[in-house]
Amino acid sequence: SNIAQQRTHPRYAELQDQLKITVEGLLTEGHLTQDQYTSLMDSMKATLRAVILSKRHELLKDAGNSRFQLMAADFISDTSYTAYLLEIQTGPALSHDDRISRVHIPLLLNDTLSIAYEVLHKKVNGESLMAFGTQSRFEMFINDALR
Fold it and tell me: pLDDT for 49-75, tens place per residue?
C-alpha cells in the first residue's frame, strides 16, 4: 500500500507527520485561500460522484436494506487545485500512527456510529432517512449521485 511504501523510506519516522495533510489543514494552515479550498473540494466531490455513478450497480448489488461500508479516498492535487483520485479503499486503515489519524479517526468513528444509530432508529420508526441530525462533520452528496 501507499503507507507501506512510505514506511520503507529511511527518514519516514522523522517526516511522517509532514507526509499527510487534510484538505481542511491546507486551508487552516494558510496553504489555500477559501476560493482554492472550495475549488479543490468541488473537484474531489465531482470525482467521487463520477466513480460512484460508474460503479453504482456493483455498489448496490445485493445491498438490500442492511449494507454498510466504510470507505476512504486518497487524492493528489495539481497547482490549479484539480483533484486526482489515487485510490478508494473499501477497508481503510484505522490506525493512530500519525498526527492526522490521531485526531480524525476517533471523530470519524464517533460520527459514523452516530449516523448508523440514527439510520437504525429512523428505519424502526418509519421515518425518512434524508435529513440527518447527526451529520455534523459530514456532507451528504452520495444520494444525489445515486438518484
Answer: 888 888 877 776 755 555 666 777 888
Say if CB 12 and CB 6 are below 8 A apart: yes
What is the band of 147 on the pLDDT scale with cuts at 50, 70, 90? very low
Structural element, H or E, at residue 45: helix 34-54
CA angle 75, 91, 103 (to 5 degrees): 65
Q: Rg of the chain over CA atoms, in angstroms?
A: 17
- In this structure, which amino acid lies at residue 38? T
Residue recorded with cell 485561500: 33
Nearest Cα to 1, choosing from 77, 104, 91? 91
Contact 134, 111 (CB under 8 A): yes
Strands (E), 1-147: 72-77, 83-89
